[in-house]
Amino acid sequence: MSRLSRRLFLQRGAVAGAALGGAFLPGFARRALANVVSEEENVKAVVSKVQLGEADAGMVYRSDVTAAVRRYVTAIELPEDANVLASYPIAAVTPSAAPELAHAFVDLVRSPAGQKVLAAHGLLPAPATAP
C-alpha cells in the first residue's frame, strides 16, 4: 500500500466496497488497514510487489499498470464517485532560458499528437482549455 492509497482509503471510507458494488460496514477501513503488511514509497513499488506475488493487492493509478505488468495483475476500476484524479499541471516558466522551446513543449503536450502519447500511457486527456 502506498501512503496515497492509505490516505484515500481513510478519506473515502469503503472505496473498495464501492468498487465492488457494495458498501462495507462501519470500521471496515480501520480493520482492513490493520492488516497492511507493507507500505511502499511510491506506486511503482506497489505494482512491483503485486506483480511479483509479494502482495495480494494494491491501489495504483491506471497509468501505473503498464503493458509490461498487465498480464501479471488484474485491474479493477474504481467508480467515478470513489476515484481521486491526479492533476499534472504544465506551464512554461517566465524566466526561461529558452522561452520559445518551453512554449513549444507545452503546445506539443497539449496537441492531439501529445494527447495521443499520454493516452497510450493510460493518462486521461487534458482539458481543452487551460484552467
Description:
With 131 residues, this protein is mostly helical. It has 2 domains: 3-82, no CATH class; 87-131, no CATH class. It has 7 helices and no strands. The mean pLDDT is 79.
Structural key phrases:
131 residues; mainly alpha; 2 domains; 7 helices; 0% strand
In short:
This protein has 131 residues and is an all-alpha fold. The protein has helices at residues 3-12, 15-19, 28-33, 43-51, 67-70, 99-110, 112-120. It has 2 domains: 3-82, no CATH class; 87-131, no CATH class.
How many runs of DSSP E, i.e. beta strands? 0
Structural class: mainly alpha
Fraction of helical residues: 40-55%
The proportion of strand residues reads: under 5%
CA gyration radius, whole angstroms: 18 Å
**Biggest sheet features:** none
